[in-house]
Design brief:
This protein is mostly beta strands and 336 residues long. Helix content is 1%, strand content 60%. The strands form two sheets. It has a 16-stranded antiparallel beta barrel with strand order 1-2-3-4-5-6-7-8-9-10-11-14-15-16-17-18. It has a two-stranded antiparallel ribbon with strand order 12-13. The N and C termini lie far apart (49 Å).
Length: 336
């Protein structure tokens, strides 16, 4: 007897699930999983759930968008967001000693996203945040509300392997009650094309706030920034304590063949101000931290493969020159 077996493989639309993983010598292994559902279980809604977990971090972010009959003429996208994080880190406490602390953060928000046709979007949000701190000497809970505005202008040609265009982000945050502070952030990437194989990218990250005027242990979580490793080159991802921050750099890309990009990166942290890095519990400022790196980015069926080796003459938050501050970063998978 003969049998005719036919196998059909159909790709699910809208990238229903994405997987990513990365490793570095600070956090070890970090895994990302993101699920997206369109018109399920409710029609005209999009649900996303992104989970990140690793050696010292656990994050879960759920978003629900009302997309209706979305097109580039859509005026507003109502959105509900929930983000739950749990991070383990070290900081200098009010007694001037290093202390391990667990920061658990729950953030609920109602947002209105206004698409700017093919240019970008404006996102207005009303938020309620609950932050719990657990350590040997610091156990407290903070409850407060705030509103935020996020403006993004995005003209990058590719999400995973950008080589042309630009992206600018402006973030503004103001509280509604309990605390008085302001928080502004600016981030940008701008590519300049020399020819098809040679590209230059200018990038920058800026943070301005008056968080340092609050009490020592108030809103610690607001002073922890999340900036990608290849932008500061100095152990910053997930543990950058800063009330004010000015960092910028330049990256040269050589596109060797279609699948491989050689990267040369220079970054300069002009200033970083923080009340969590000085044992006297006063605002400490660290200036003129220059770093450089060489790396590879390779296209693969699992997503981008990145390897970066970095060198700096100063450690972050250390004013003293050191003989050797080499580190490396490896990642494989889609940057969700």
């Amino acid at each position: 007897d003969k049998y005719d077996i036919q196998i059909y493989v159909e790709e699910l639309p809208f990238h229903t699930m994405k997987l990513a993983g990365l490793w570095n010598n600070y956090h070890k292994l970090i895994a990302n999983v993101k699920f997206s559902l369109f018109n399920k279980p409710i029609k005209k809604f999009k649900f996303t759930n992104e989970i990140k977990f690793g050696n010292t971090i656990k994050e879960n972010e759920i978003n629900m968008y009302y997309i209706g009959n979305y097109n580039h003429q859509t005026q507003i996208i109502p959105t509900i967001k929930f983000k739950n994080t749990k991070n383990e880190m070290s900081y200098i406490n009010s007694d001037g000693f290093y202390e391990d602390i667990i920061v658990s953060n729950k953030n609920y928000s109602v947002n209105g996203i206004f698409p700017l046709r093919d240019i970008g979007f404006i996102d207005f949000g009303l938020n309620h945040q609950k932050i719990k701190y657990e350590s040997q000497n610091h156990n407290s809970i903070e409850n407060f509300s705030y509103f935020n505005i996020n403006l993004r202008v995005d003209q990058l040609d590719d999400l995973l392997y950008p080589s042309d265009g630009f992206r600018y982000d402006l973030y503004i945050e103001q509280p509604n009650n309990s605390y008085s502070y302001y928080l502004y952030k600016i981030n940008f990437d701008h590519f300049i094309s020399i020819n098809n194989k040679n590209k230059i990218k200018a990038f920058g990250d800026f943070m301005f706030s008056d968080l340092s005027d609050l009490q020592k242990d108030d809103l610690l979580a607001k002073s922890i920034s999340y900036i990608n490793y290849d932008r500061t080159l100095t152990y910053s991802e997930y543990d950058l304590y800063a009330n004010e921050f000015v960092s910028y750099g330049i990256e040269y890309n050589y596109f060797y063949k279609n699948s491989t990009t050689i990267r040369l990166i220079y970054n300069h942290i002009d200033s970083i101000v923080s009340k969590y890095i000085d044992v006297t519990n006063s605002n400490a400022e660290d200036n003129n931290i220059s770093s450089y790196a060489i790396g590879l980015r390779v296209k693969s069926i699992l997503g981008p493969f990145n390897f970066i080796w970095t060198h700096s003459k100063k450690e972050l938050y250390d004013l003293n020159e050191i003989e050797n501050n080499d580190s490396y970063f490896f990642s494989l998978g889609i940057n969700l």
